Amino acid sequence: MTYEELCFASAGDIAALVREKKVSPIEVTEAFLTRIDKINPQLNAYVTLTPDLARETAKRAEAAVMAGAAMGPLHGVPFSVKELVITAGVRTTAGSRVFRDFIPEADSIVVARLKAAGGIMLGKTNTPEFGYKGTTENLVFGETRNPWALDKTPGGSSGGAGAATAAGLAPLSVGTDGGGSIRIPASFSGIYGLKPTFGLVPNLPGFGGWHSLAHTGPMTRTVADAALMMDVIAVPDQRDRLSVPAVGQPFSQAIHSHPRRLHLGWTRDLGYAAVDPQVVSMEEKAVSAFREIGWEVAEAHPGFTDPVEIFDVTVRAENYVVAGDLLSRHADLLDPGMRAFAQVGAGITALDYLRATQERAKLSAQLATFFEQYDLLVTPTVAVPPFVINTRPREIAGRKVHVIGWIAFTYPFNLTGNPAASVPCGWTADGLPIGLQIVGRRFADALVLQASAAFEQARPWAQRRPALG
């Protein structure tokens, strides 16, 4: 295999090649480091590289292979980590000048598990400051560019992870999602991203904020790789009181059995969202794949109104726990957008937050009622194709929209905690990727992965690569 072929191989294939001694962990690591050195300057996907650590880990992994030692499921497989996720001995800034020089003493639970499974960490990927918005730029590292069009954003806040994965700079990437931050860049970067059921993957330790909204999950080029990653990270941990027990068989086994009959509800707008006509057209064509599989698809949606105000109150109140202290001590170091975001949080009362919590309960109940009739809900992932860096859509399909109206399909499912995935469903005439969102009942992560795998089989995407040189 050429180094480029190795960089676009699946994590599962790399692990198998390592186990079979057809390629060494050292060769794998050097291939990715070479490609990162070549491609990352165009993208700014990685903001901190750990080549010495990666090479040292690869040498130990190679020694284990040659000694015939037991190997984890990700033995010799590289991975990237979002800059919001803490890493022992490796600078973790959260995209903020306040933490420009912060070096954590411990790994997050997820990173520790990936390492224990044999994974090789390559470095940290870019994020907006504290992940507060759906695009990826900050005052420490600048902006990340979309590998399919360098003038476009890859989305956010896991935009560095999305760009790195799409460009062959990591087969596995750790992302986080508080309002769409895995699914938005998955859609904009043409990869697969899964926001698991809330609590299924432990989030701690971390920076705080996004207390009841944040999910940690996989960003990969294939569904099988996401399932493999979930087998490693979706395990409860006593340190995170919000983590929940894993359910069912391993995800990497579950994806190989496609349900014979499913009843899917499909909505192009959730009853309230403005959507770009290009997105609607592509999504409607994509949904036909489920009918070809033999599943029933009906136009339907849960019937709730846009929960943007509920989300706004919740996210600002929960982030003010962190942002309030930063405002009082480091306001001059904060991104102006982050500063304004935090200042609004200061005016939210405990009563406001509790009322929003009550409305979230009603929203969850309404969605649960929908899932009594339908197995899955299918929607667009994002209302628009990727747009130019440092802009925001304020009008879609001739309608003026809320500042986060373009992600109207993602944040509702952070409020409810349901599993939701974005699968690539096509490319525009300009070569920009579009994502289709698949949402399941709480704890039906395996079913979401199964449906994603069935869609991938019907409409494969992984062989398409951005033209970077």
Core attributes:
15 helices; alpha/beta; 39% helix; two-stranded antiparallel sheet; Amidase signature (AS) enzymes; 469 residues; 14% strand; eleven-stranded mixed beta sheet
Give a topology summary.
Blueprint: H1 3-7, H2 11-19, H3 25-43, E1 46-49, H4 51-67, E2 78-82, H5 109-116, E3 120-125, E4 137-138, E5 142-143, H6 159-166, E6 172-177, H7 183-189, E7 192-195, E8 215-220, H8 223-233, H9 251-254, E9 263-266, H10 277-293, E10 296-299, H11 308-330, H12 336-345, H13 350-373, E11 376-380, E12 395-396, E13 399-400, H14 412-416, E14 420-427, E15 433-440, H15 445-458
Parallel strand pairs: 2-3, 2-6, 9-10, 9-11
Antiparallel strand pairs: 1-3, 4-5, 6-8, 7-8, 7-14, 11-15, 12-13, 14-15
Describe the structure.
With 469 residues, this protein is an alpha/beta fold. It has one domain: Alpha-Beta Complex (Amidase signature (AS) enzymes), CATH 3.90.1300.10. Helices cover 39% and strands 14% of the residues. The chain has 15 helices and 15 strands. It has an eleven-stranded mixed β-sheet with strand order 1-3-2-6-8-7-14-15-11-9-10, sandwiched between helices. Helix 10 links the parallel strand 9 and strand 10.
